[in-house]
TrEMBL record:
Keywords: Signal
Gene3D superfamilies: Bordetella uptake gene, domain 1, Periplasmic binding protein-like II
Domain of life (superkingdom): Bacteria
Record family assignment: Belongs to the UPF0065 (bug) family.
Record field: transmembrane: none
PANTHER family, per database record: BLR1237 PROTEIN, TRICARBOXYLATE-BINDING PROTEIN
Cross-referenced InterPro entries: BUG (IPR005064), Bug_dom1 (IPR042100)
Organismal lineage: Bacteria, Pseudomonadati, Pseudomonadota, Betaproteobacteria, Burkholderiales
Signal peptide bounds: 1-28
Name of the protein: ABC transporter substrate-binding protein
UniProt KW Transferase keyword: no
A Pfam short name: TctC
Length: 249
C-alpha cells in the first residue's frame, strides 16, 4: 500500500481486522512524513463503526509514527459534510478521512448537482474494514422477528418507523431494498450517525433501525436491543443464532 502525500487521503471503513496490518513504511514517500499532526476526519458523529475504527487507527499509528493523529467528527448529510471538508483541505496528506461507502460512493450521487465533490476528488488508500449490517428493534418491542417486522409493515402500510445512520449509508440502502422486496412503504428517518438512531430506537421514537453491527452489538449483548437479521453473506460469529437476510427471503 503506497501513500501519496500530494493527494487527498481516503480510508474506506466498511471491519477493523486489517486496520493495523498494513506496513507503516509503505505510507511515506517523504522520509519525514508525518512531521506535524495529521487531521483524521470521521464524517459521522461519535459512536459508530467509522468513529471506533478511526480512534483505533489514530492511537496505533500515532504511537508508531511518533506524531499525533487527531480525530474530528464531522457528521451530517450521509457523511457528505465531513467528506467535503476533507476535499477542501490542502492535498498534502495531513487531512485524511476514515469513512464508509456512504460519503465515498453513494451520498454525493444521491445529492446530484448539489454535491460539492465526487469520487474523483479523493485518493483511496486502503480498505480497513468490512462490516456486517444488522436490523434491530428494542428488546421489549412486539416485533420479535424479521417475520414480525414484515407482517407489521403489511398490516400497517406507511406506519413502520425505520431509522438509519444517514442517507446513502448501507443501512439506508438496506431499508430501501426491504421496501422494494416487500412492496411496502416505511417512514424512513435519516440520522447523523448510528448513535443517534439507536438512541431514538431505545427512546421509542422508532420501530426499527438498520445500521452496522459494531454500532449495535454491545446493546444487543446487554439485552437492550434485539437483532432480527444480519446483512452479510454468512452468519456472523458474534451472533450465530441470527439469520442473514438471504436466509429469510
Amino acid at each position: 500500500m503506497n501513500f501519496h502525500p500530494h493527494r487527498r487521503g481516503l480510508f474506506a471503513a466498511t471491519i477493523a481486522a486489517t486496520l493495523l496490518a498494513h506496513p507503516l513504511v509503505g505510507w511515506a514517500q517523504k522520509a519525514d512524513y508525518p512531521n506535524r499532526p495529521v487531521r483524521v476526519i470521521v464524517p459521522f458523529v461519535p459512536g459508530g463503526n467509522a468513529d471506533s475504527s478511526a480512534r483505533i487507527f489514530a492511537e496505533a499509528y500515532g504511537k508508531q509514527l511518533g506524531q499525533s493523529f487527531i480525530v474530528e467528527n464531522k457528521g451530517g448529510a450521509g457523511g457528505m459534510i465531513g467528506a467535503a471538508q476533507m476535499v477542501r483541505a490542502a492535498a498534502d496528506g495531513y487531512t485524511i478521512m476514515i469513512g464508509t461507502t456512504a460519503p465515498i460512493v453513494a451520498s454525493w450521487q444521491l445529492a446530484g448537482k448539489t454535491a460539492s465533490y465526487s469520487l474523483n476528488d479523493m485518493q483511496p488508500v486502503a480498505l480497513l474494514t468490512r462490516v456486517p449490517g444488522v436490523i434491530v428493534t428494542k428488546a421489549d418491542s412486539p416485533l420479535k422477528s424479521y417475520a414480525d417486522l414484515v407482517a407489521y409493515g403489511k398490516a400497517h402500510p406507511g406506519k413502520l418507523k425505520f431509522g438509519h445512520p444517514g442517507n446513502g449509508t448501507a443501512g439506508h440502502v438496506n431499508i430501501l431494498q426491504m421496501q422494494k422486496a416487500q412492496s411496502q412503504q416505511f417512514i424512513i428517518a435519516a440520522y447523523r450517525g448510528a448513535g443517534p438512531a439507536v438512541q431514538d430506537l431505545l427512546g421509542g421514537q422508532l420501530d426499527a433501525v438498520a445500521t452496522d453491527l459494531p454500532s449495535a452489538l454491545q446493546l444487543i449483548k446487554a439485552g437492550q436491543l434485539r437483532a432480527l437479521s444480519v446483512v452479510f453473506p454468512q452468519r456472523v460469529a458474534s451472533l450465530p443464532e441470527v439469520a442473514t437476510m438471504a436466509e429469510l427471503k
